[in-house]
What we know:
The structure holds 2 protein chains of 2 kinds.
Chain A: H1 2-25, H2 29-46, H3 53-75, H4 77-81, H5 84-90, H6 95-124, H7 130-155, H8 163-184, H9 189-214
Chain B: H1 8-30, H2 45-72, H3 76-107, H4 116-136, H5 142-173, H6 187-228
Helix pairs in contact in B: 1-6, 2-3, 2-5, 2-6, 3-4, 3-5, 3-6, 4-5
Amino acid sequence: MAAVTHYAADVAALARKDLLIELRSRDTVPAMLLFVVSALVVFRFSLPADASNLAATGLLWIAVIFTALLGLTRAFVPEREQRLMDALVLSPCDRSAIWLGKALSVVAFLVLAEAIALPAFALFFAPVSWETAAAFALADLGIAAVGTLLAAMAAVTRARELLLPLLFLPLAVPIVVGGVGASVEPDPARYLAFLGLYDLLFAILAWASFEYVVTE
Amino acid sequence: MSTSLRNNAAVAVALAAAVLLLTAIALALYWAPNDADQGFSQRIFYIHVPVALTAYACFGWGAWKALRLLWTREARYDLESYTAVHMGVIFGVLTLVTGSIWARISWGVWWSWSERQLVLFLILFLFYSAYFMLRYSTDPGPRRARMSAVYALFGVVLIPISFLAIRLAENFIHPVVFTRDGPQMAGSMFFVFCMSLAGTLALAAALYLNELAGKRLDERLRELREALA
């Protein structure tokens, strides 16, 4: 039990550190908010006048996935610039706690971006259903779980920002399927269940494998 | 580590692959009965499906070696995993090409989003292409080996998840037009299919052994060169 509390305290401290950095520097979230609204406006002009709102819903998902990518490319920038990663790896905490703390802060950023994106979508296109909001909540977990691990990988490569979308997008296909399905299908439950399954599988995999990615 | 150019196992497997594949192709073309619905063109089935299954086998083998690498931290598994994924991508591209040809002949289109296997292989192709980008963009060493291994493991989880996703997506992307009710295969067809599958697997194994030997030589050569420099 003590180990669990200790682990949770580590995770909370790491997530708090990321949120504090963001609160003081405001490097990432404002960019994400502006990006998601700009993307929606651009998408408005990419649709023919008689396009259905179903098509717009699909584009909403694309806008959020790209916004998430924007945030994820920045996720490990402070660690890299301040050479913090080595210190984190040396610190007496479980390595997976670094992943979980970072993933939680990514979820927080995503929720903020969607808190803008969904009302903006409702204003520009069509009302947003509860199922869509639930699907975004589930998708955030999957995006953060997979994206944080891949961002840690990409951060140590030469290509860095260039590589992350290539690594991430094929893995995002199931998220888009589950999300769009839950948003447009009459029977959203199975799509939400599918998103839950995705979150579970990939969160376990990322949690277990993060250590191998960050250690020299 | 053996650096001898003579690689008896690879030669034997290559010979077996040649015999099996040539026999399977001959049987598929001249002996197997025509399919009742699709006629002669159905015979591409004896190449397309074994190639697809071989690609899965390669990805699975690569992931198994990746798991061994993370488990034992033995460096040799890195090259083995990489080579297996490399073969998987080659057979995956072959699957896409043969599937595309089959779609053209059967349905008159080069690409059909309602063909699950093809869509899955497209996603896998993109995924494993990124695997190569990851490798080329990282300096060689234990860290690259582990990152590649983790990504290869993600691949085998992505395969069933994507398959499920594609089945779910059919409901809203495209109505299911072409349903195939179970493989109602005649015994002779099944025999040819099994032979072709064995041949393709042997071909993949031969290529794998050959490529692995080549990559090991490469590595050894680089080490020697560094030692001399």
